[in-house]
Amino acid sequence: GETLMRSEKPYCPLEDMDSEDPLFYLYTSGSTGTPKGVQHSTAGYLLYAAVTQKYLFNIHPGDIFGCAGDIGWITGHSYLVYAPLCNGITTLIFEGVPTYPDAGRYWEMV
């Protein structure tokens, strides 16, 4: 893995996108029937995620941000993936359920 990484460029070329181009699809929970795929567009979603994280959570350069939302939920998508990338900060992502084997796992992560 490390050998492969050394041969890669330290950047990715930008891809021109339209503001309404699809960014991702996420399915609803299905609590009112069959789950439905919801398309989120590029500009509006990214702007909202970045600005709400920056100002509601008082984000600054060098911060490490953790979110209890599952990455399969819109909260996890927003504040574990897209907003931290837009704001240039580190994200704490954990595997599994945050309360297993007990709720003390939250404090172990901190």
Automatic annotation (TrEMBL):
Residues 11-110 form the AMP-dependent synthetase/ligase domain. It is an enzyme of class 6 (ligase). It comes from the Eukaryota. Coiled coil: none annotated. One of its GO terms (biological process) is acetyl-CoA biosynthetic process. Pfam families: AMP-binding (PF00501). GO terms for molecular function: acetate-CoA ligase activity. PROSITE patterns: AMP_BINDING. Gene3D superfamilies: N-terminal domain of ligase-like. Its EC number is 6.2.1.1. InterPro entries: AMP-binding_CS, AMP-dep_synth/lig_dom, ANL_N_sf. This is acetate--CoA ligase. It comes from Cryptosporidium parvum.
